[in-house]
Amino acid sequence: MTIATITKVKTGLSGQIKIPGDKSISHRAVMFGAIAKGKTTVSGFLPGEDCLSTIRCFRKLGVEIKQDGENVEIQGVGLDGLKEPIDILDVGNSGTTTRLMLGILAARPFHSVIIGDDSIAKRPMARVTEPLKSFGAQIDGRGNGNYTPLSIRGGATKAITYTLPVASAQVKSALLLAGLQSEGVTTVTEPRLTRDHTERMLETFGVSIQREGKSISIEGGQTLTGQHIEVPGDISSAAFFLVAGAIVPESTCTLLQVGLNPTRAGIMEVLEAMGARVSIANQRMVGSEPVADITIETSQLKGTVIEGDLIPRLIDEIPVIAVLATQAEGQTIIKDAEELKVKETNRIDTVVSELSKLGATIEATEDGMIITGKSTLKGGTVDSFGDHRIGMAMAVAGLIAEQEVVIQDSKAIAVSYPTFFEHIETLINV
Ligand code: S3P
């Protein structure tokens, strides 16, 4: 098992880092490039384990993909050009690969099998396989199609109108991708707005999408055309350094080219509500996504309430927001976040158990957690439980803990941020 040891920072974090490519956007660039006609090139791609799983799966579907670090070249075959795979499609730890690829495969006239790691095997898939079955696809798997391994026999599909029971960009995206290949107009309505990278990027590839409030419609039979996609920095990765900069004394850090899509940027509102000294500069568009450089300084923080429509806009940042809250005066209450239970781990349980080990005052609730600060974190041994964001949240806690923090199973961090420890070093050593 890989272990990382983090010790308290003595003189503050300073300097700047370029945040690695957005994971959600990197997955989509590969998938949409594969189903487009003609060549797609991607720069700023995130070469994390999850996105590499997407590349491997699409190669098995007959697509030629060259990847060299952050540059990817995809020889798009068009939807009709995908081939029945002779091997199982292994998604590793990636929920996004599983669910978006299911949307594509549901309408392809062949058989395929999806498996993943132990964490994927516990994650609910009925939320996507059930509506995909109503398009006309045949999907089976453990628990009546709720868990991997999943077997898919796709085919001609008919458009559906569907209201999502949970706010999930992965499910929304899967249904739009099946809709793209179906007869008629598919309309998906979400209970709360979720990340809209799929809609933005499909439009970039030449697909027409209609949005009305929380509903999105797509007409079947449209063709994607190869593009160049530049991937912005991932705000979910920047989040670890936004929190580190705010809580490590005497820090000033600048994070370059961070994606600030409003459906993702909830953490910026939380930082503001908690009183953090944060500023943005150089706002611009990278492709169809807004980006900016963000500077964060050590801050006096106060507790806040995080709930409702804000939750899907910061769902992946909650583990590190919990670390931030340990350093804020008073209570921080996180509610309406039961989706945390079905992430790479049950993140209500893992955040509460691991931060408690470090001496935080934190309690789990049915739909979130309550953190009371400001508390001194002591050191200790914690576990990532194979969850990249738990590993990184614990590393950030280690930067301010009195004694060293030992993180077990730290290699999970490479799922979304292979250069995480190097970036910590950069900010410590300037
Ligand atoms: C993602 C959507 C979110 C998020 C995940 C990436 C995506 O999941 O937590 O890390 O790329 O669409 P849900 O769709 O399950 O909310």
Backbone shape: globular
- Name of the top-level CATH class of the largest domain: Alpha Beta
Helix content: 25-40%
Q: What would the CATH topology of the largest domain be?
A: UDP-n-acetylglucosamine1-carboxyvinyl-transferase, Chain
What is the straight-line distance between the termini?
31 Å
Q: Any idea what the radius of gyration is?
A: 21 Å
**Alpha-beta classification:** alpha/beta
**Which hetero ligands occur in this complex?**
shikimate-3-phosphate
The CATH architecture classification of the largest domain is Alpha-beta prism
Spans of at least 5 consecutive residues whose pLDDT stays below 50 are: none
Q: Give the count of helical stretches.
A: 13
The main pleated sheet reads as: 5 strands, mixed
How many beta-strand runs?
26
Oligomerization status of the protein chains: single chain
* Superfamily (CATH H level) name of the largest domain: Enolpyruvate transferase domain
Number of domains: 2
Mean pLDDT, to the nearest integer, reads: 98
β-strand amount: 25-35%
Key phrases:
430 residues; alpha/beta; UDP-n-acetylglucosamine1-carboxyvinyl-transferase, Chain; 2 domains; five-stranded mixed beta sheet; four-stranded mixed beta sheet; globular; binds shikimate-3-phosphate
